[in-house]
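Dear colleagues,

As part of the handover before I leave the project, I'm documenting each prediction I ran so the next person doesn't have to rerun anything. This entry is a single chain, and its sequence is reproduced below.
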Amino acid sequence: MDENMPLLREFLNKMLLVTSTIHASLSRALKLEVGQRFEDFHRPDQPSPCLLRLLKYHPQPIDERGPPQAPHIDLGSLTILFTKQPGLQVLPKGVQEWSFVESKSGHAIVNIGDSMSVMTNGLFQSCLHRVSPLPDQCMQTRYSMAYLQRAEARTPLTGVEGPDIPVIDKSNEVLTSGEWVNRKFGMLRAETHVNDEEWILTGRTSSLPA
């Protein structure tokens, strides 16, 4: 690990540049003022619970083929995913069938997470997704690298103010980004497969059985 730290630092600096560019573009499109712009809550010099994660999925026996993880929604702001292997599926809101996301060499897959949905009062929708083997196949060994960007730890997760941001009832509990992360990790550690039920981990207020 130590010998690769310069490479990791270079990669993380590039991720900061990429996510800052995305936030600035979205803020500009929504006509957000200084203090309400997305990049104001993702400053690189402030503590935040961001993660860089290497994911490995082990091969499945033929009699156990199927999605190896529960469908879920990312809890943070942006997820930048790198993989050369197929398997990622998404289920957009209002759609009944899962769709595979094509992996392209030299490209990243970008997901919006729960935090951005909350900060736009639902204007942006975090996407339900999972990893699944290709049709009529079992899961092969699969690797991916994900940069999980989250807002600064003290950021209150509530809607920003802007002309295009929907106005909603703000009587619900307001968590900080750090509290939000801790709450969802508690859900992820909970038993999600009981009584032969299938579960969806939403990370909002509860775990909802599918």
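The beta strands are 51-57, 78-82, 88-91, 99-100, 109-112, 128-131, 142-149, 199-201, 207-209. The radius of gyration is 18 Å.

All the best with the project,
I.
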